[in-house]
Structure formats: C-alpha cells, structure tokens
Amino acid sequence: MVNLEWYRTFKAIYKTGTLTGAADSLFISQPGVSLHLSSLEAYVGYKLFDRTGRKMIPTERGKVLFNAVSEALSKLEEVEKNFQKSTEKTTPTISVGMCFETFQTTLEQYVSTLDFNLIIGFGQYPEMLDQLDKGILDLIITPKKGTSPNILHEAFSSEQIILVGGKNVDTEGFKEILKTKDFQKVEDWLKQEKWYGTTGDMEHLFQFWLMNFGHKPKFRPNYIVPNLNSIIRCLKGGTGLAVVPDFLCKNEIESGDVKLIWEGSKKLENTLYFGCRKQTMYQNEIDHIKSLFRNMMS
C-alpha cells in the first residue's frame, strides 16, 4: 500500500510549485521531499511533474492524480486535526536523538517535568543526522556536524576524552613510567592492565590511542559491556581501565570511586552541538530542552 506521506508531499509540491516551498510547508528537508516524490512516481509508474528551472510543472498525469486525491487528503487532514485536538489536546510531540549514555546522565532526570510529549531515539551519529534532515527527529545532540544546508549546528559544550581506572589501579607506578617520556613503555604498561569496552562504538579508545601512540590499539578489551555507563559502574569495583568522556564519570572521580589515570600527552576534546532544522514548528519546546542541557553542562 502506498505511503500517505507521499501523497501529502505531492499535494504540497503541486500547491507551492517548488520542492523548497513544499519542504518549508511540511517542515521537512528538500531531500526528503525529493525522496517522497520519486517514490510516488515509481509506485504509480509515470512522471508527475516536469522540472523547469526551479519550478515544478504538473504533467497531465499529475493533474489527474491531484484532482483524484486532493479532496480526500483535505478531508483526512481535517479528521487528523480534529482527532488530535480531542485526544491529545494539541500537546506537541518532540523527537530527540542522542547517545544512550548522554540521555542517562543528563536529560533522563528531567523527563517527568516536561509539559510536552517526548520521544528519545538512540543510534549512530550519521544515522541521526540523516533522520533529522528527513524530519524524523527534531533535535539531536552530537559531536559531529553534518553537511546538509537545512540543518543548523550550535555548539554548547565540550567533552574531554580521558583514561580512567578503578581505585585500586597502581597510578603511582604509571606516573613513574610517564616521567620517562618513553611512550613505548607507557603503552606496554597500559596493555598489561584489564580493559573495558562496549558492544557499540569504540571510537573514543581509537582516537585516544591514535593521538598518543600514533596507531590504533593492538589489543581487544577484556570485558565488553552494553554501554559507557556500565563501564563506569564496573570500574567502581576497583580495577580495570577505560577511555571515556569526562562528564560521564565526573561525580565518581570526585568521590574517589574512579581514578583519573591520564589525560593524554595532548588533551583530546570533542565539541558538542545541538542540531536542528532551520524551520520547525516546535521552537519553544526545542529551546526548553536546549536550556536544560546548557544548565547541566555548564
């Protein structure tokens, strides 16, 4: 069965005469509009528009299809509007993407205070950038900027990637080796320890090792756990090493449950960005979530 969003996009293009105009009216990206149109044309088996410069001129087949679906779509949109008013009382729903650990450490504690509906999505950063561009997500928290002209990136904080360990790790012995500035010995010492990693992204460990030793780590972690927060809890047992963002273990380091072992020969820092589309109907809700993050990360 055909996706009704394809028809909605088709109607918007027909009404506005441009892909950009349709994207603006639907609050989605232009690539998303193009994808819907090409999918509908493939489904019905013929061209619906002739592309003349920037204008989208409906073909005869396109005019026939518009006349066939326009009234039905208008009725459906009216039903949708009335149904939403009666059941949800126009409460907006915001979809936000970020990594699981960031959510647990920051926004999770504030979810019950929000006066709008919230859907949290987790995934890899390229995937979240694509979903934001297509209108699936309304806001993302990311250390990586995308290239889409439809997305605004706003830097709001930074994270430092650090080497941490359990409180029983022999940090004094490690400091003595560091004084020699023999990084082969430093690497050999680190490889002899027990290491924690995650089932997902190991980019933090790879970046840290490349910056300090000039190559990726030539070992696999001894213990693979679900996420970075799991690593922090395991390190509180007293032994083991891991490379993690500093904000995830700030409290544990201050309490002495986890030790800061090494910041590296050079500090490895990532800038954190808010990513959102240039046009959105949920600006107030997005600004509220942004303010929560600024307060937490300041």
UniProtKB/TrEMBL annotation:
Domain HTH lysR-type intervals: 2-59
| Record key words, sorted | DNA-binding, Transcription, Transcription regulation
Alphabetized InterPro entries for the sequence: LysR_HTH_N, LysR_subst-bd, WH-like_DNA-bd_sf, WH_DNA-bd_sf
Ranges annotated as spanning the membrane: none
Protein family (similarity comment): Belongs to the LysR transcriptional regulatory family.
Quote the Gene3D superfamilies the UniProt record gives: Periplasmic binding protein-like II (3.40.190.10), Winged helix-like DNA-binding domain superfamily/Winged helix DNA-binding domain (1.10.10.10)
Q: What is this protein called?
A: LysR family transcriptional regulator
Species of the source: Chryseobacterium kimseyorum
